[in-house]
Amino acid sequence: MTTANKVALDPLYQLTDAELDARIVAAKAALGNRCVILGHHYQREEVYRYADLTGDSLKLARLASQRPEADYILFCGVHFMAEVADILSAPHQTAILPDMAAGCSMADMADLPAVEDCWRQLNTLLDAEATLTPITYVNSAADLKGFCGEHGGTVCTSSNAAHVLKWAFGEREKVLFFPDQHLGRNTGAAMGIGLEEMVLWRPTEPMGGLTPAQIKAAKIILWDGFCSVHQLFQPAHIEQWRQRLPGVQVICHPECSFEVCQKADALGSTELIQSRVREAPAGSQFVIGTELNLVNRLKHEMPEKEIHFLSPTLCMCSTMFRIDPQHLLWSLENLIAGEVVNPIVVPAQQAAMAKVALERMLAIV
Ligand code: 13P
Ligand code: SF4
Predict the structure, then answer these.
(1) Spans of the chain, pLDDT less than 70
(2) What Gene3D superfamilies would the database entry show (predicted)?
């Protein structure tokens, strides 16, 4: 953050909630259509309420490319989401992340040098270009999406992973899936791929810690990455809820472990979780295994349904939480002052290849 910014952040922490609200509403009105605020479902309520458009990663990626009238796409989410908005939006548009510290710890578990090294090592055993399709979960840096674009692969989200894997197996015999092992394993298992055909690549070990026989027999090579929030949910939590509320519907996000997902009634993206609960009749009982802010919002929105959070401890995405009303106001008022703070600009060459991978995904589903 530079000291030259026309509107400073620190004093905004002295404002009352009512003052913050009045200034955010006024700033949004002053900017009008020039600025669209996108909000991920994990955003805290004090920020989410100002989003013009909300959704899961796939929906937000599509929306980012469908608002050409907005010069600014202000992303209340995490860094990789704002990168996707930058890549898919028009050249005259600028994506903004109100707090640069809003990253994703899972996305940080795979980086380009490590994935390139993995590809090189696999190539000593297989003809990587001919046999492997690289698929990156959208929760990844733009250069990894670029890697997939360059090597005939694509991107997936939690809502289209099955379609994307199906497409990949129509292209080549194996998939290298990063960074989330759980999404890859849960999706593969739902497609009938055996656990023994999905092996775990540990990037710090030679050959990922795998034998040549394991690699040759594998259909999916899973990167050893995970979400630190979703890994907190345990199969025992589901068992406890089922004892307490027989007949309850358990819905989990596919970033939860295989053991948790096997015990759930349904798996889905944040958007799917929201629609399943909204569509259910009054009196329905749900236990939900995903980030706390979304579950609490659904609870408040639908008091006529019984909605519980799966874990007895808090599972919150601390990086999503970085975006607070103060940062939102700071970004908006600086735009009014002609100052763009925290623009997300993916370097042109990286963006071009990442766009290839993202457009491939959008063409699949
Ligand atoms: P969704 O695409 O389901 O919104 O998930 C994004 C995410 O980061 C979940 O942890
Ligand atoms: Fe990343 Fe997990 Fe947060 Fe989603 S919940 S943004 S995967 S750290």
Answers:
(1) 1-5
(2) NadA-like
**Does 140 contact ligand 1 (Cβ within 6 A)?**
no
Write out pLDDT tens, residues 237-281.
Answer: 999 999 999 999 999 999 999 999 999 999 999 999 999 999 999
Is the minimum distance from the CB of 273 to ligand 1 under 6 angstroms?
A: no
**Per-domain residue ranges of the chain:** 3-103+319-345, 107-227, 230-309
Return the CATH fold of 3-103+319-345: Rossmann fold (3.40.50)
Residue nearest to atom 7 of ligand 2 (CA): 227
pLDDT for 89 equals 97
156 backbone dihedrals φ, ψ, rounded to 5°:
-135, 165
What is residue 3's predicted lDDT score, i.e. its pLDDT?
44
Nearest to 329 by CA among 78, 34, 3, 8: 8
Which amino acid does the sequence have at 271? E
Q: For residue 60, what pLDDT is reported?
A: 96
Consult the annotation and say whether 40 binds a ligand.
yes
pLDDT for position 1: 47
Torsion of CA 177, 183, 184, 188, to 10 degrees: -160
Dist. CA 167–CA 361, nearest whole Å:
10
Q: Tell me the pairing of strands 94-96 and 343-344.
A: antiparallel
Burial class of residue 194 in the structure, from the number of CB atoms within 10 Å of its CB (0-12 exposed, 13-18 middle, 19+ buried): exposed
Provide CATH code, domain 107-227: 3.40.50
Return the residue matching tokens 């408040």: 300
